[in-house]
Amino acid sequence: MAEYANGMNKTIDTLRSEHRTTSSRLDLLEREIDALREGATPDYELINLLVQYFNGYAQQLHHVKEDLVYRRLLTSFDRTQDALPDLEEEHEQLAGQVAAFAEAMEHVQSDAEIPMGQIVDICTQYVTAQRKHMELEETLFFPKARERLSDQDWADLEGQIAQIEAAPGNASRRQEADALEQEIHVQMQDEQPADS
Ligand SMILES: [Fe+2]
Ligand SMILES: [Fe+2]
To answer: Rounded to two decimals, what is the model's pTM?
Structure first.
């Protein structure tokens, strides 16, 4: 029975939950970009935390898990038929964009002579590309994977993903991400008006 296609699917649920977190972090980043655009001083501490978040767990573990699902899907599916883009390639492009974004923020904070418009463009490009990528995964990749992969495929993937999550480097990466989440949360609370 296609249990994973129609019922609970731990892998997809986890990936979608990670998208929701990433999406709310992109909202925060956009707000800081708006401040930059308007010539105000953004919250650099928060931006640095967001850079670490996008560069760390979000970039390195989320995409690794998706790549596993994607490669399994390609074993029985011609992606060009359904116009599914090359997701591994998109992940590489996003890695390049997040690196450019991190570098741009370093320059801003070290008073390097870079036009602010250029910084805003780099950050905006990253946010736009990341949102577009996640939307494509939600609307095309995840539904296709659910439809095409067998229960055995999903069971195998769950096992592989559990191994990846439990690998020593990744377990500490997960702890860092959780600590980062805490810090971002505290940072946001600090910004709330005292009477709210
Ligand atoms: Fe992805
Ligand atoms: Fe994703």
So the answer is: 0.86
